[in-house]
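Figure 3 (text version): structure tokens given as input.
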């Protein structure tokens, strides 16, 4: 395995050649930790010349991605991933927690085109929902998303906030909802943080949207909406921060 690190202003590019397995994964982890300790938290992994990816290699990337997301400091993205290598991400169910690009300039540009970051904290009550929606809509419109995408983003955030009030806190006015919106040239990244009860989305069944009315069980419809309307939906829990929900919407998808 060969590894080359190239430093850019907004991110670091790491080109990997060869096998990523139990032998090379610790070396990759050491490089990633060094890059992060040097102050660069946005990392592009170029896998064009990777010939094999094992579960230990995937978990190395997942561990670092979790660390970055919990600290809300950056992320790992991948570019030029061969089809067979990507199939292992899919097989392990981790293809949804990373962003994948078809070429390196697009991956680098995803970090270079950050225009601003806005963060606000709202009381976790139903009265806040209209204010939160307007906050989100204003940013999405300013970012020149289409009307249908603006509506989709607004709906997903509203469902997320309602779930936080109903399920994480259990009732109104128990805590706050912190919302950070990062605007890129090609996407919006929205991060919602609450200090309610830990949330396990895997425990929520898919809603029944086909059975006759008398047989339907609608639980899980909010998460269903989020996953249908947004391009990325990631739930995490941090002992220090609480529940962390990351939503991403790309233009033109």
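Below: residues designed for each position.
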């Amino acid at each position: 395995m060969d590894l080359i690190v190239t430093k850019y202003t907004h991110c670091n590019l790491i080109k990997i050649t060869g096998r990523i397995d139990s032998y090379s994964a610790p070396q990759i982890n050491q490089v990633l930790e060094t890059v992060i300790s040097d102050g660069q938290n946005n990392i592009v992994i170029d896998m064009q010349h990777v010939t094999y990816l094992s579960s230990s290699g995937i978990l190395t990337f997942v561990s670092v991605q979790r660390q970055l997301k919990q600290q809300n400091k950056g992320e790992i993205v991948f570019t030029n991933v061969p089809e067979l290598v990507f199939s292992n991400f899919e097989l392990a169910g981790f293809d949804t927690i990373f962003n994948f690009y078809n070429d390196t300039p697009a991956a680098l540009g995803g970090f270079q085109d950050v225009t601003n970051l806005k963060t606000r904290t709202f009381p976790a009550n139903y009265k806040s929902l209209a204010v939160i929606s307007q906050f989100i809509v204003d940013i999405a419109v300013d970012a020149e998303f289409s009307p249908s995408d603006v509506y989709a983003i607004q709906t997903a955030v509203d469902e997320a906030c309602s779930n936080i009030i109903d399920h994480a806190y259990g009732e109104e006015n128990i805590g706050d909802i912190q919302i950070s919106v990062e605007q890129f040239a090609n996407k919006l990244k929205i991060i919602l943080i609450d200090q309610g009860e830990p949330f396990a989305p895997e425990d929520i069944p898919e809603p029944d949207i086909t059975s006759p009315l008398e047989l339907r069980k609608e639980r899980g419809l909010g998460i269903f909406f989020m996953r249908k309307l947004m391009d990325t939906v990631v739930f995490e829990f941090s002992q220090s921060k609480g529940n962390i929900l990351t939503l991403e919407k790309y233009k033109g998808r």
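The radius of gyration is 19 Å.
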